[in-house]
């Protein structure tokens, strides 16, 4: 069972890769199209700015590869910025097109009293669709967020879990075989590892 | 609503934990990686490593500790000590740390905060500050070089400046409270928290569970950091969090 972690020069992939290995899977940090398309599942990580990330994805051809993996039915998981990239567009430093696997846009947190930006730290998940394969069997708890922009899913049916930061914030999304987590599951203690474990199990169910 | 964070701090020299570690259930109590993994299991929300190595070899060893720790734990961690250039920051972050702590180097060269934030994002840059009450001023003064050198800089002024330059967080150590176990410096902590809109980690003086409750309420801190009381198991993190939760503090 090999898990491809897409390496497109954005962020540190070591922690994600190790978390995957601790769960008993083989992880492959790669920018090789054939390896990604042959993997049992695909993780799109990401830290940094949306526009830079999309540019890196396009330059490396990884945008086409990730879309192809999603269309071929491989389980795909975007983490943090990687989740935001799954959406149609972002307004981070100008208007940018995303991978368009999920309808919706990414916007900056509006300033509010008592809510600092970035939204950084441990916040509690509320499961909207507890029967989703990603959330099944798990108990709502805290996970670790670091972000200044958040995704507005156009379809309520894509929203699996939210967290409260003055208003409901998109935390877990899913449509078919495409999933996303705004927080860092690899930095979110036991619950984070369980969430990652549920995602990695999808491949077994589909195989 | 963000949870208040409990953060153990590990002093590491030449790849070994040096200060007050007294664990019976570890194979090697001096191994920072093993200790970090234990704290993760016990419910710590984050960790801070302070590298007090003086040699180039010691610093190189720290990179390896960071790399191994990143592979072992599932909570964020900050690395501080001897970081004075964006290249230093890059090495530590590349090895898998989530945040960088800077102290003396930032006082000497405040642009380091700006550069770090620009390259890696504000969320990566933790300004560590050692402050001591100055009677003549009637407010707190910043000390550098591990608390040995007074700077003539007012702590509140420096905190505000660090935030303006792009620091994502302040790790605030009260030199007056540090080591006393009489509780965090609530006045200093609240003064800094009132002034800033970035999170503040309070450090120095924790001796009992109530001290954390006080610093999260009266002190308005976002996180509480301690070393010896956790290392010596005077307070078990699990008990501390259960107690705080019972008192209505938002805790993971």
Features:
heterodimer, A: 207 residues, alpha/beta, Rossmann fold, 4-stranded mixed sheet, 6 helices, 13 strands, B: 252 residues, TIM Barrel, 10 helices, 24% strand
The radius of gyration computed from the alpha-carbon positions of chain B, rounded to a whole number of angstroms, is: 17 Å
Number of separate helices of chain A: 6
| CATH architecture label of chain A | 3-Layer(aba) Sandwich
Please identify the structural class of chain A as seen in this structure.
alpha/beta
Secondary structure category of chain B: alpha/beta
* H/E series of chain B: EEHEHEHEHHEEEHEHEHEHH
Explain what you see.
Chain A has 207 residues and is of the alpha/beta class. Chain A has a single domain, classed as 3-Layer(aba) Sandwich (Rossmann fold). Chain A is built from six helices and 13 strands. Chain A is globular. The termini of chain A are close together. Chain B has a single domain, classed as Alpha-Beta Barrel (TIM Barrel), CATH 3.20.20. Chain B is α/β, with parallel strands linked by helices and 252 residues long. An eight-stranded parallel beta barrel of chain B has the order 1-3-4-5-6-9-10-11, surrounded by seven helices. The chains are: A alpha/beta (207), B alpha/beta (252). Chains A and B meet through helix 1, strand 8, strand 9 and helix 6 of A and helix 2 of B. Chain B: Pfam families: His_biosynth. Chain B: It is found in: Cytoplasm. Chain B: This is Imidazole glycerol phosphate synthase subunit HisF. Chain B: Keywords: Amino-acid biosynthesis, Cytoplasm, Histidine biosynthesis, Lyase.
């Amino acid at each position: 069972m090999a898990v491809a972690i897409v390496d497109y020069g954005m962020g540190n992939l070591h922690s994600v890769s190790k978390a995957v290995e601790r769960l008993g899977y083989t992880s492959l940090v790669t920018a090789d199209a054939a390896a990604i398309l042959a993997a049992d599942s695909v993780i799109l990580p990401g830290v940094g700015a949306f526009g830079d990330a999309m540019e890196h994805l396009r330059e490396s051809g990884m945008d086409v590869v990730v879309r192809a993996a999603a269309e071929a039915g491989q389980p795909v998981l975007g983490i943090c910025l990687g989740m935001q990239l799954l959406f149609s567009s972002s307004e981070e430093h100008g208007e940018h097109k995303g991978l368009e696997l999920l309808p919706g846009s990414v916007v900056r947190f509006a300033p509010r009293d008592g809510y600092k930006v970035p939204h950084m730290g441990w916040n509690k998940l509320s499961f909207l669709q507890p029967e989703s394969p990603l959330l099944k069997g798990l108990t709502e708890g805290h996970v670790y967020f670091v972000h200044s922009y958040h995704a507005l899913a156009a379809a309520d049916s894509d929203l699996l879990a939210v967290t409260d930061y003055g208003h409901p914030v998109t935390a877990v999304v899913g449509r078919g075989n495409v999933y996303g987590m705004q927080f860092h599951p690899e930095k979110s203690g036991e619950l984070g590892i369980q969430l990652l474990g549920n995602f990695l199990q999808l491949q077994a169910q589909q195989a | 609503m963000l949870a208040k964070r409990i953060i153990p701090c590990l002093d590491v020299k030449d790849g070994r934990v040096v200060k007050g570690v007294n664990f019976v259930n570890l194979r090697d109590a001096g191994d920072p990686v093993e200790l970090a993994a234990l704290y993760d299991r016990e419910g710590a929300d984050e960790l801070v490593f302070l590298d007090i190595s003086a040699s180039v070899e010691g610093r190189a060893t720290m990179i390896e500790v960071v790399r191994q720790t990143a592979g072992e734990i599932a909570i964020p961690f900050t690395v501080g000590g001897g970081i004075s250039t964006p290249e230093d920051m890059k090495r530590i972050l590349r090895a898998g740390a989530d945040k960088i702590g800077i102290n003396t180097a930032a006082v000497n060269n405040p642009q380091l905060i700006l550069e770090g934030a620009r390259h890696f994002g504000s969320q990566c840059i933790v300004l560590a500050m050692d402050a001591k009450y100055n009677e003549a001023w009637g407010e707190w003064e910043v000390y550098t070089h591990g608390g040995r050198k007074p700077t003539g800089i007012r702590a509140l002024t420096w905190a505000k400046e660090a935030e303006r330059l792009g620091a994502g967080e302040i790790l605030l150590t009260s030199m007056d409270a540090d080591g006393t176990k009489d509780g965090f410096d609530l006045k200093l902590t609240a003064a800094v928290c009132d002034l800033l809109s970035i999170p503040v980690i309070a450090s120095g003086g924790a001796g009992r569970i109530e001290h954390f409750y006080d610093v999260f309420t009266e002190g308005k801190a976002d996180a509480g950091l301690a070393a010896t009381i956790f290392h010596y198991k005077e307070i078990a993190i699990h008990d501390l969090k259960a107690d705080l939760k019972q008192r209505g503090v938002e805790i993971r």
